[in-house]
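Structure in, sequence out. Go:
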């Protein structure tokens, strides 16, 4: 799957993207806010992600600024099948924070989830990262009121995480703000 938004291009990672992924994610203040990335983050971790992300039936996508002179990797976003449903996750490189990229990519990913037939999504963020909560609310997620301890590979410990959910019935999907992307699916993903 691919998506084009007003400023972004989302596409699956390829093995040759590994160095760019490593360069963008290799910062402790990024990975400490994620559940699955280790710290220190190594080039092998990025290479493994780029080599295997396409094996998942749900989208794992790189986020590129498509308006730059050369497309610039800003981060990643993905849907993952978890015990409690399909979970949305993302990260953005720190020099691109506070520009709306996470919200724009997240809205495109929600549009993809709908195109794939998902009418519910979940998400979490560590309580000490309230900016992610603002992004999730902007995408259309609602807090569930649940906070529980969640493992962080980078922190090597559990930390309190706030839970969110998105449900298609609660969204006015006719509103252009909620579907800013043109999604392109290949036959394997459809």
């Amino acid at each position: 799957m691919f998506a084009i938004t007003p400023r972004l291009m989302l596409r699956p990672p390829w093995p040759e993207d590994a160095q760019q992924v490593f360069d963008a994610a290799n910062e402790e203040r990024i990975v400490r806010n994620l559940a699955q990335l280790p710290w220190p983050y190594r080039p092998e971790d990025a290479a493994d992600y780029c080599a295997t992300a396409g094996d998942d039936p749900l989208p794992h996508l790189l986020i590129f600024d498509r308006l730059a002179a050369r497309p610039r990797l800003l981060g990643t976003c993905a849907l993952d099948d978890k015990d409690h449903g399909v979970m949305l996750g993302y990260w953005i490189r720190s020099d691109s924070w506070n520009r709306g990229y996470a919200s724009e990519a997240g809205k495109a990913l929600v549009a993809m989830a709908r195109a794939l037939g998902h009418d519910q999504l979940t998400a979490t963020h560590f309580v000490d990262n309230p900016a992610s909560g603002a992004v999730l609310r902007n995408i259309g997620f609602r807090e569930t009121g649940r906070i529980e301890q969640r493992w962080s590979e980078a922190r090597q410990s559990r930390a309190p995480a706030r839970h969110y959910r998105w449900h298609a019935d609660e969204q006015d999907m006719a509103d252009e703000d909620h579907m800013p992307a043109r999604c392109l699916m290949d036959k394997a993903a459809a």
